[in-house]
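Appendix B, example 12.
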Amino acid sequence: TALEANRRHLDAIAQYQGAKRISAAGLLDERIAICHSAMGNYAKAIEHIDIAIALDSTDADLYESRANYYGEMGDRAKAIEDLTKYIEFYPEFHYAYYRRGWYKHLDQQHEAAIEDFTLAITLDSTYSYSYDGRGRSYYSLGQMDLAKADFEKILSFDTIPNDNSCASSAYHFLGQDSLAIEYMLRTLEKDST
């Protein structure tokens, strides 16, 4: 809404709360959750996304949102649980496997993370973050040849410096820190903000 776009989240929440007196639509609690999240209040965001899920447990996007809120709070187990529910709705969506793999990686579940990253790569072999995550997990397990292969794969197609690039990270893990820094500086030069 316009209030959210102008970062007037408290005003938007007040309007949504007023609308809830008229209708108990889950969309209102979802919007309230988004506002709380934008303000960094993830516990309140979860409180409202839980209400939205109670009103419509078939909306997969609500589970993805809640997984993100749990992730921001550092509760990786619950984030993984919600991403698993999301994947039940959309088993062909590579990004969900990537996200779940990333939380598993952060939780030191490297073998399970590698499985998710590999599924993500199978579904979309051009998504460099999946190779980055899998490479990091291989690295954490000391499987350097496999890690190196993933980082080299990133460099084979992630060649345009931008803020979504994994190439700088790949250079770093390959021990080429001067190239990592150079790539990062080129990315910053392209950033107009």
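The mean pLDDT is 88. The chain is about 75% helix and 0% strand.
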